[in-house]
Amino acid sequence: MTDDKTGDLHATIPQKRRPRWLIPASVAAVLLVAVTVLYVPVYATSTTGYCGSCKEMRKAYTSWQRSAHSSVQCVECHIPPGRSAAVGWRAKETRNIWASYLNMEPASEGESRPENANCIKCHPLKGLMGIPGELRMPHARHINQNNLMCIDCHDNTSHAGPGESSAVSMRPCTMCHEQTNDPGQCSFCHYSDPGTKSHPDDFLTGHGKLAQADEQDCLRCHHDKAQFCDSCHAKPPQGHYTGDWRNAHGTQAEKDRDLCYGCHSYEDLCKQCHQVSHPEDWIEVHPAVAAKGQESCMVCHPRQMCLDCHRDNGVEVDIL
Asked: I want to staple 264 with a disulfide (CB 3.0 to 4.6 A). Which of 38, 123, 148, 269 is the partner?
């Protein structure tokens, strides 16, 4: 009896129904948010104007505007072909867009260099491409045989600096051909002798900084590090064997510091000694420090220096 009454009571209570427009409105709101969060950044990052809006990219954007590729979007060159690369790049840039609005730290990795596949989409490797009457070039052979990238030679095509030429430099050519002992084959590509050098005159003393910054860039042409680099770098200068190089090297460094930087980095080697700052009363307080262990002193100072100084000042010292 009680159950029947309870059932009748529930039957008489009207059920609340959701408005018919609520579900479609919710779906529309979700779609609007998805479009705002995803589609707008994807559309924006597909335009070159997006790259030009960044202050750090302004120089590259300006050089692109005056290049022969000014009608080609940045993404056509700087995003490797393939869906995964495109999705990865746009995901990173989408994060950067919202990070700028939310005061978050943007992704710091640089943009990728154009790959051969990007260039070949518009410039197929066919025959001997070049300049009629001036130059003929077997591009496919150089790329396939020597593992070269298009921008190894065409590095200024889209981003030449003010006053710089966008033409191809002869430096990559001579760097390889001089090693393979066939510099006389220039006439195969050139109808006349170009007469240019592979490296500037001071490259021997200044190449160390470039090699430390990007060693792989050197190895594109100097393929065998053991054969090419170690033929010099495995043999330190004669002065290194005199026994007092640690204290006498300053004279040589003052004459030509770049010669030192060909092998040594200031951050990794020189800084250990040359940025040590002793307090003004170091002469009085250093015995207590040296008594804990002489190894730290010997990083910069030879034992004979200690002995001479202590002898001259009449101080007994026990230095092994």
From this structure: 269
CB 168 within 8 A of CB 141: no
Q: What are the CB-based long-range contacts (under 8 Å, 24+) for 158-164?
A: 158/63, 158/64, 158/67, 158/68, 158/69, 158/72, 158/77, 159/60, 159/63, 159/64, 159/67, 160/63, 160/66, 160/67, 161/63
Q: What is the CA radius of gyration of the chain?
A: 34
Structure tokens belonging to residue 305: 């220096």
Which residue, chain included where needed, has tokens 């640089």? 110
Say if CB 98 and CB 90 are below 8 A apart: no
pLDDT at 1: 47
Give backbone dihedrals phi and psi of 166, rounded to 5 degrees, phi first: -90, 0
Residue type, 27: V
Model confidence pTM above 0.70: no
Q: Are 51 and 74 in contact (CB under 8 A)?
A: yes
129, β-bridge pairs: 137
- Interval 106-131 mean pLDDT: 77
CB atoms within 10 A of CB 234: 8
Task: List pLDDT tens digits, range 245-285.
Answer: 777 788 878 887 777 776 777 887 888 788 877 888 888 88
Query: What Cα–Cα distance (Å) separates residue 89 from each residue in 102, 127, 212?
Result: 20, 34, 28
First CA to last CA distance, the chain: 109
